[in-house]
Amino acid sequence: MTDADPELLDLLSTRLGSQHVIRDAASMEGYLVEERKLYRGTALAVVRPGSTEEVAFVVRECARAGVPIVPQGGNTGLVGGGVPHSGLVLSLARLDRIREVDPFNATITVEAGCILKTVQDEAEKADCLFPLSLASGGSCRIGGNIATNAGGLNVLRYGNTRDLVLGLEVVLADGRVWNGLKGLRKDNTGYDLKNLFVGSEGTLGIVTAAVLKLFPRPKSRTVAFIGCPSPHAALDLFDAFRRRAGDQLTAFEFMPRFALQIVLKHAAGAVPPLAGEHEAYALIELSSPDPEIDLRERLERVLGEALEAGIVEDAAIAASETQNDALWHLRESLAHVQRFEGGSIKHDVAVPVSKVADFIVTATQACEAALPGVRVCAFGHFGDGNIHFNLSQPVAMEKAAFLAQWERFNRIVHDIVHAMNGSISAEHGVGLIKRDELVLYKDPVALDLMRTLKRTLDPKNILNPGKVLALESELPPSL
Ligand code: FAD
């Protein structure tokens, strides 16, 4: 703590109210530890400004005092990006107003602290859809979604968060406010500044509000759970649906046999969807804003052809909304149940969709060869080329001994991803957990441009220092 810090905290208390400058250890605890408990941080205080002007005030004063700031939304990030190692945590939770819903422009303007579920609900009240959908939707906040360019379940049809953002309001590292809150579909007036901040994980600016796209709300949907003989057959099936169903294909999710086995073993209420077992499973959803459309008929037609072609072995098609939800429950439980199988080593990666089956097969073989008994749980957003390539420990192995091999498996999996021209972080970001990996796999010119942007927009390096980019000068010895 520098001499300036008590003065700074007093100044902030005067402006924000002392109840919004949290200094006691017990109240700070929830802000210092991240979701998976992989990282624990320290901070001088947690500040909770209630408006854009107050955020700007905090940033200005921190810039003056040279005190780092870690912005935080719902703290559900999975890469350690919101964990502080000094300075202040700046929580956006109090900026939680819906500023405007404009159904004719199909936009909603929200503050960064709005919980994702609240934004979805507000859109629904206007008979619209805000399609971003994550299992953390009840606690993550829009500013965090934007800062991480979150993906989730509906990317296939509606895109990542980046595709849903039309405008932003951002507090810059010197405390100036950039008002880019435009709800325009076309705006070619120079560089696309908003896209600099989307996915920048709090290192370039603090998002305080956003204009987001809305869509017509689906009025009909049908879900099927399908058994396939292999990941390659699942890819052929995806191709058939993409060609035949076009935009009606809103999800194509993948699970291997091991994944379904552990869901059925551990998830409450999970019911076997098919009579036999299969090597690969796909969950497919078709949806449409037209309540009259017969999606089931289309689904059955494509599946019938796929059965004849031998790329589908069995299929369960939901006959009601309750059954739609029951099939989704199998997929959504997966992130949660893996912990009951012991330690897991996780990789959130992307390859071109055309290579996703090759990736699953190649990486599975490589990991099984590297550690006999390792149980591969490669599941996820197959239609986006995004696989959560997770490994569960061998049954007879000690958890600690398995987790000690994380680096080794990173190299195996990420080298394969890289050789396929893929990405070592598909949707969760870089944060701390992949910061040093990034240097190994990202194009050096791209890294150089990123550092140039960081130095230009944040010359004092006060915004989330040490995250995303490894700048030697800014790292404390412990990192
Ligand atoms: P935080 O965790 O608070 O912050 C994340 C990063 O953004 C940090 O670097 C932080 O400094 C920065 N940040 C936060 N707010 C701002 C702001 N206003 N301005 C600038 N920077 C800011 N992610 C997916 O992409 N897809 C999924 O399917 C998915 N599923 C998940 C399921 C579960 C059960 C959990 C726990 C997490 C999941 N996640 C998923 C990860 C996580 O929910 C997302 O990354 C989410 O977008 C983070 O939002 P948050 O508000 O919690 O951000």
UniProtKB/TrEMBL annotation:
UniProt cross-references to InterPro entries, sorted A to Z = FAD-bd_oxidored_4_C (IPR004113), FAD-bd_PCMH (IPR016166), FAD-bd_PCMH-like_sf (IPR036318), FAD-bd_PCMH_sub1 (IPR016167), FAD-bd_PCMH_sub2 (IPR016169), FAD-linked_Oxase-like_C (IPR016164), FAD-oxidored/transferase_4 (IPR051264), Oxid_FAD_bind_N (IPR006094)
> Which residues does UniProt call coiled coil?
none
Question: Flavoprotein as a keyword?
Answer: yes
**Which parts of the sequence belong to the FAD-binding PCMH-type domain?**
39-217
Q: Which UniProt keywords apply?
A: FAD, Flavoprotein
UniProt similarity note: Belongs to the FAD-binding oxidoreductase/transferase type 4 family.
**What's the protein name?**
FAD-binding oxidoreductase
The organism named in the record is Microvirga splendida
The major lineage groups are: Bacteria, Pseudomonadati, Pseudomonadota, Alphaproteobacteria, Hyphomicrobiales
